[in-house]
Design goal:
19% strand; four-stranded antiparallel β-sheet; alpha/beta; Rossmann fold; Alpha-Beta Plaits; 181 residues; three-stranded parallel β-sheet; single chain; 2 domains
């Protein structure tokens, strides 16, 4: 069917009342949000998978009833980080950049924030991890979300967050100590 899915009549003609799943991958968050709202209004049992571009739109999609939210940007970012953190691919990347010798001792690490850490409930600005450890914080996995790349200075570190960092072994060990006390 070649028609406008933001139109309720089109959704009805397409069988939304009996549909089990609706996948909305229109070019804009606004269009996908509108389709999500319409689909859930016409069939509250339909599972809606919706594409988003802006992470800030995620809460709106959840309120509208989207069951699954897919961000092509996050998927691509996760894939790039996966390639970079797989040792063989990482070293190919390092050779490509021409920084093989300078980066030989460096690696990616994942450090979990444990109970009792003084980092809990501090912003990244207050935690001052780069100055305290000489690590680069690439991103973090919170207990509530997928990988968040390049955390903002005012983001708050929570118990259970896992920080993706880049540095040498001693720097990573230093952060692990801070993260567990």
């Amino acid at each position: 069917m070649d028609a406008d899915p933001t139109n309720d009549d089109v959704l009805l003609q397409a069988g939304i009342k009996r549909a089990k799943i609706l996948i909305s991958v229109l070019p804009s968050d606004a269009e996908n949000l509108f389709v999500t709202l319409s689909a859930k209004d016409l069939n509250n049992k339909v599972k809606v998978i919706s594409r988003i571009d802006e992470a800030s739109s995620e809460a709106k999609f959840k309120r509208a009833g989207a069951d699954f939210i897919v961000s092509p940007i996050e998927i691509a970012t996760d894939h790039i980080i996966s390639i970079a953190t797989t040792s063989a691919d990482f070293y190919s990347f390092v050779e490509f950049t021409g920084a093989k010798e300078e980066l030989k001792e460096y690696k990616f690490g994942l450090v979990e924030i444990k109970q009792g850490s003084d980092l809990i409930n501090k912003s990244y600005r207050e935690a001052n991890i780069p100055t305290r450890t000489n690590l680069v914080v690439i991103g973090y996995y919170s207990t509530l979300s997928e990988l968040q790349v390049n955390p903002k200075a005012d983001n708050i570190i929570q118990l259970g967050d896992r920080l993706l960092v880049f540095g040498n072994e001693n720097q990573i060990v230093s952060l692990k100590e801070i993260a567990k006390h």
